[in-house]
């Protein structure tokens, strides 16, 4: 049986939408008529999902991180409870909060009922389920521990989402302060300074250099602001094009790891993702080389990903995981020490989880420290800019007052 999406009208003339299981579209229409409904549309859920995917994604229609975490948690709970995969997907399809979620689950169920593995079914929806997600599902299916892997994957997604939210919230205040400061300075340059300039022009007074420079900047802001926006957009486009190339991107990522303040944030964030993913894979019984390769793909920093490739070569040659990672000189020493302890005790997974939790707390602490440092610096910078503008306006007034006296 396959999943069909339907639209039908009941006796009261109300349009109903939903998903039903049937051997064919004709059988689905028969089911609807038996329920006293007049079918309007009966089509495969997978067909509609694929046919409208471009339109939906162009409008930003896809699984949110919250929905992905909820679906993964529900899927893991039902599988651990012993419910067959097809019935589990049916339950998720019926309980979806949005039409898109229900149709997505129905489409995946159709693929699974048709004989495909869950990982293959998820591969038809790469925007909703990224590569690492599908890799973990594949590992769970191969080891027969799909429920456990999905449960740990749900923990990872929830923790990752919580960490992202904390980082975003920490940088929200500095961002708001920066935008307000930029708006105030723009207002002063485009409105206040020109008003004062008219007074000085009528007196034919020789203006100080600071005032002349400020008037020139004000004139540029009022008449050439569009050119500045175009220049900024052009610079961003050029930089993105350069960083899209492998060589410059690798060089930039290497610099990012050593950048003051932000370098530790980049290193910590990638370490959390690597340790969490590697812990999930080792818990599922995935071979260490394959687990390292999959965990390395979660790293956003290409320099660290290159170091993981070197570590894989060393492990394949017989080097221990802790020594291979230690030789890269990239990951925090705490991670290497904990992995070494796990190798000695035979419980690497627990040590990876501890390393991930510890590095996550350290990342939060560093983020809070950085934002607490940025806030007064931004306020001082804003005050300094306003002070320069005020001085540029007041200096001619003071000189004029001295001439009158």
From TrEMBL:
Span of the signal peptide: none
Stretches assigned to the Type II secretion system protein GspF domain: 72-194, 274-396
Pfam families on file: T2SSF
Protein topology in the membrane: Multi-pass membrane protein
Transmembrane segments: 167-193, 224-243, 373-398
NCBIfam families recorded: GspF
Recorded family membership: Belongs to the GSP F family.
Name of this chain's protein: Type II secretion system protein F
Source species of the chain: Paraburkholderia humisilvae
The organism's taxonomic lineage, starting at the top: Bacteria, Pseudomonadati, Pseudomonadota, Betaproteobacteria, Burkholderiales
Gene name of the record: epsF_1
């Amino acid at each position: 049986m396959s999943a069909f999406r339907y639209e039908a009208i009941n006796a009261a003339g109300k349009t109903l939408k939903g998903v039903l299981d049937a051997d064919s579209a004709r059988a689905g229409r028969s089911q609807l008529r038996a329920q006293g409904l007049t079918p309007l549309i009966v089509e495969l859920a997978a067909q509609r999902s694929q046919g409208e995917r471009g339109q939906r994604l162009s409008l930003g229609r896809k699984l949110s991180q919250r929905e992905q975490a909820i679906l993964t948690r529900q899927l893991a709970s039902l599988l651990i409870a012993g419910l067959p995969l097809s019935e589990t997907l049916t339950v998720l399809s019926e309980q979806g909060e949005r039409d898109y979620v229900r149709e997505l689950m129905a489409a995946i169920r159709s693929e699974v009922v048709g004989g495909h593995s869950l990982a293959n079914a998820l591969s038809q929806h790469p925007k909703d389920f990224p590569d690492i997600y599908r890799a973990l599902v594949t590992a769970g299916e191969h080891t027969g521990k799909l429920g456990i892997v999905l449960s740990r994957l749900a923990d990872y997604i929830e923790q990752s989402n919580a960490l992202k939210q904390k980082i975003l919230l920490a940088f929200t205040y500095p961002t708001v302060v920066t935008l307000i400061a930029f708006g105030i300075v723009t207002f002063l340059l485009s409105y206040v300074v020109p008003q004062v300039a008219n007074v000085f022009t009528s007196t034919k007074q020789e203006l100080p250099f600071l005032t002349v420079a400020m008037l020139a900047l004000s004139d540029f802001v009022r008449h050439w602001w569009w050119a500045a926006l175009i220049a900024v957009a052009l610079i961003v486009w050029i930089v993105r094009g350069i960083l899209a190339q492998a060589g410059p991107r690798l060089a930039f990522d290497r610099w990012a790891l050593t950048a003051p303040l932000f370098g530790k944030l980049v290193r910590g964030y990638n370490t959390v993702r690597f340790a969490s993913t590697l812990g999930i894979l080792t818990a599922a019984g995935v071979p260490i080389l394959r687990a390292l390769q999959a965990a390395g793909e979660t790293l956003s920093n290409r320099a660290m990903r290159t170091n993981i490739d070197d570590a894989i070569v060393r492990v394949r040659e017989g080097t221990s995981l802790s020594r291979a990672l230690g030789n890269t000189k990239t990951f925090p020493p705490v991670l290497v020490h904990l992995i070494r302890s796990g190798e000695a005790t035979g419980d690497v997974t627990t040590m990876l989880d501890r390393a991930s939790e510890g590095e996550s707390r350290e990342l939060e602490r560093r983020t809070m420290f950085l934002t607490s440092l940025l806030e007064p610096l931004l306020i001082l910078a804003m005050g300094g800019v306003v002070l320069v503008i005020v001085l540029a306006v007041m200096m001619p007034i003071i000189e004029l007052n001295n001439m009158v006296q």
